[in-house]
Design brief:
Layout: H1 21-38, H2 42-55, H3 60-74
Helix pairs in contact: 1-2, 1-3, 2-3
C-alpha cells in the first residue's frame, strides 16, 4: 500500500490468532487470492475471494481483494498492484 508521508510502498498485515488449522487455511487461501490479484489474474482472484467471502462475510481484506479484482476485470487502465487507500 502507499501511505501518506512514506515514499515507498509498505506491506500491510492483518493481525489475528492463527491457532486453529481452519484459520491457518483461511489465511493461506486469502493470501493466494491476493497473490492472484497482484499477478493480474483478476478472474482467479475474484473467484477465490468470492468463495472465501461466502464463509467469512464482511472480511475487510477479502472485500478489498474482490473489489480490486472486479475493477481489474472491468477497467482498461493499467493495473497497479500497490493499493493507495482513499483519503488520509
Amino acid at each position: 500500500a502507499r501511505v501518506v508521508n512514506i515514499e515507498q510502498p509498505v506491506d500491510l498485515y492483518e493481525v489475528a490468532p492463527a491457532e486453529e488449522q481452519a484459520r491457518r487455511a483461511f489465511f493461506a487461501e486469502s493470501e493466494a487470492a491476493l497473490d492472484a490479484l497482484e499477478a493480474g489474474d483478476f478472474a482467479a482472484a475474484a473467484q477465490q475471494a468470492g468463495a472465501l467471502l461466502m464463509a467469512n462475510p464482511g472480511d475487510g481484506p477479502l472485500l478489498l481483494t474482490l473489489k480490486r479484482a472486479t475493477d481489474g476485470l472491468l477497467e482498461t487502465a493499467a493495473f497497479d498492484p500497490v493499493w493507495t487507500p482513499p483519503g488520509k
